[in-house]
Protein 1
Amino acid sequence: MQVFNLNSVKPLNNDDMECKTLHKDLIFYLDNEVSNQKRIEIEEHLAKCVDCRSFLSFLKEGMQIIEKEKNPEVSPFFYTRLSARLEEKPEYQVQSQWARLAQPAFFSIILLLGIYGGSRLGSNASFPKVNQPATSSIQMLNDFEAEPIESFLLGEL
Amino acid sequence: MDESELIKGIQQGDNKAFRLLVETYQRMVVNTCFGIVHNTADAEDLAQDVFLEIFRTAENFRGDSKISTWLYRIATNRSLNFVRNNKRKRFFQSIEETFTGGRNRNSEISENRNDQPDQNITDQQRSDLLHRAIDRLPEKQRTAFTLNKYEELPYQQIAEVMEISLASVESLIHRAKKNLQEQLYECYKKKCV
């Protein structure tokens, strides 16, 4: 990769079109993923364009962060902590298995009891409502039969 | 001890085999998780979850892929889930802060950074900028990019981990780099670092 001396190059007016086209390839240029012809084009442009050079160095510094931060040091107690968590496992598993079985069973029983109670209450409440008007109307009719108004009034007179 | 013996040992509940597996692969798993969550403590917690899952589901391992491929797959899935849950939590936190008038956590962080030397501010800002840009990538692009850049995995192995074709990996990494460059360019233009 060619190294550019920022002080030795005079700042020129940038060709915006060329900048826009080459900007898109700078990340691939950094990773050596461009063709030889493209590389030459980019390097020629970088030689005369201060802004693109500046962006390239910004991009390079940004991507170097990955190199600096990768492979963080792992805690020396990693396995100790892990084995402690493994030992917790049987109790946790028994609890979770019990909870997995008991919870749905409990809620199913509650649901069934609710349905049963509701149907019982509903059946008790609905019968009188349906039968009462019929019986009362029959009673009224019977009352008329037993004691017609006219005869009652006639009796009074 | 080769891979099949190691897995057989873990399947039989052999703690020595499990310890050997952890010691061989812990750096790799922590680094993979770190590439996605960008925090060492969270990455270690996630790596522990990965090994616990391996120990508990070792009998399901058919041996048609390498142990490392299996570990990478679990590590990336768990890390992406962790990031998703964190996003959800932050969303609800921001709603809560809107109603309670709580202070924004980001402003507290930037205030705390005022105590640090200039060089560290720039490094930290660059690091935050890159992490934000990586976090904005679609999940598949982020996974492929992280495995390639943090773990330096060849495209073929990334294809095996992600269970996609080699061409798809190439395309994902290409788009990830383009997206990252666009985001970094936006920031460069605005002089955000």
Note: Confidence is low (pLDDT under 50) at residues 6-12 of chain A.
Protein 2
Amino acid sequence: MAILFEYLFNGAVLGIMYALVAVGFTLFFGVLDIIKFSHGDVLTLGAFSGLVSFLALQSLGLDLPVVGLVVVLAAACIVTGAVGALIGQAFIIPMRNASGFNILLMTLMIGTGIREAIRLFYPNGANPKAFPALLPKTPIEIGGVFFRLDSIVLLGLGFGVILLTNWLIRHTKLGLAIRAVAQDGDTAQAMGIPFKTIVLATFALGSALAGIAGVMHGIYYSEINFSVGLLLGVIGFSAAVVGGLGSIWGAIIGGFTFAALQTLWVVVFPDASGYRDVFAFTAIIIAMTIWPTGIIAERYSERV
Amino acid sequence: MKLTNLTTSFAVAAIGTLLTGVILVAENQWAVIGALLAAAALSIVLARLKIGMVLASVLNESSAWVALLIPLGGVIIGFALHEEDFVLMMLATVLIYGLACVGLTIQFGYAGVINFAGAAFFGIGGYTAALLGEWGIPSLLIIVAGGMVAAAIGCILILPVLRTKGHYAALITIAFGLLFRSFLEVNHTLGGPQGLKVEGASVAGHSLLDGIQLGSFQASFYLNYVLLALGVFTICFILARNLEKSWIGVNFDAVREDPIGASVFGVNVAYWRIMAFVIGNFVIGLAGAIFAMMQNFIAPSNFTFSDSLIMLSIIVLGGLGNLWAILPAAILVVVMPEKLQEIGEFRILVFAVLVVLVLRFRPSGLFPRALRKFRREVAQ
């Protein structure tokens, strides 16, 4: 029973990471109806810039426990936010009338470019890098079940960030503008909403979430690798699609669903844990057959 | 069709063949760069001047004999370089990737069915060849079987693809590509990450591992694979071209451009999508089987998601739906990274930047597909 709770808990930490990535995909899809596949590699970039900022702090002798975490998160968010907005400005907004497939392929290639750049230009970047333990890994016992303290903090942090994003979208003027652009870009523009600024702000916001997810990934696994972004990007995309593109809650449900599928497989077939991803992706394909537009379907009607 | 048009077109084709040969042989970095610049200049000339339109119309409107230019050029290059193992292997790789891209063009270029799992179907063909090779089945049958198995597995995947559209359909093929790779990595009967050994092909009792010998003429055994790939490529090319010109091609165009409009006019959208997906996967599977036989060895790392992207990049860089553009694009994508060893480590980065720039500034590809001249086709 105790071991089951531990699996459940670890699945929840994975789920919150996937959900953070998926929320980014769903935000981008909301405002421009595009898939920005460089998202996963932007996440890697966030983790690496967090690592660099920590090394800088260390050389200054300022690596205090809480300050370190805050600075690393801030650095990751700023870098990923800026890169996300830059990609939007330089490549996606000028191409927004091109076919969705072209944008998908182009952003995949931008992601490949980022990944290769990290591998080549970060010192010894082809090997996994140790990520600093910004949070204590002390085990905590609750009712006979052991949890790692850092995982509890990460889970709380993830939920906090998602609730904050939801508040931002639902209850602020920026969020109102984002929702207006998502519903109908042209009408929003006619109402005086600066379309381009809002799109770029959305890109920055979504990418900053990926930055946080990257740092969380680094802390959770204690290492970071240049190629982690590809799989996380695809998982985040699957989560967003299964939940229903354009819906934040759909993305969160999708993220937890994916983590649950992986965990379920490992719990039921511990000997064949290598087939974890095969099972999860098969389940995703079957789920898509049942709900072709995701669990929370996009509300739209087709005009002929 | 005027004689002058034919001569100019033939001259352009000859220059193209010559350039291909030079790019393949050149070992000096400057020679490679020079040949690439010449190719770029040629493509700009073709895009801007009348000669390009003349060439396009000759290639598109003449009957199927014009496709025989490909085996002609290939045989000339192949026999001219008959001793260079590496060069011939690259030429065969270009043809095999080109063959897979013919399949992708039928799926995505003609019918608009997206497939991000090209490398997975390529791998299905390859693994089929590896498993059947142990039983002593004739090689040509094995190649066909590779195509059949790929098409059969594609028949299962088409069900979710038909129910979804746009990005949702893209996800299904991406997920399939990834799960195929993970499956190979952990499945021990298929060799796991180490992969499988594949029997080389033999045609009419003659093993393709023995080079052709005619008196003083001794060729590398890769020449055999160049000829095999060239043969299959030409057959599939002509069939695909006929498909495009026929009423089936008109149905594909209608389904791609406007599915709702097509269904209003009584075109069975699902039927044509299945048709394109199955035919395309068959061709990709053929290519995979030939690739496995040539390599003599396959592993999951041959069939990654990036390989699917490379195939899609070829058809998009060339010009979506333009069969002729596959060959120059495949040469660019397959040969250039091997040749520019100077940039070595940086080649994937350079390649990614190149694709991004082409998509950004020339979204319809280097040689866009010509509009269908429906009236003239009907008159024929």
Note: Chain A has a mean pLDDT of 86.
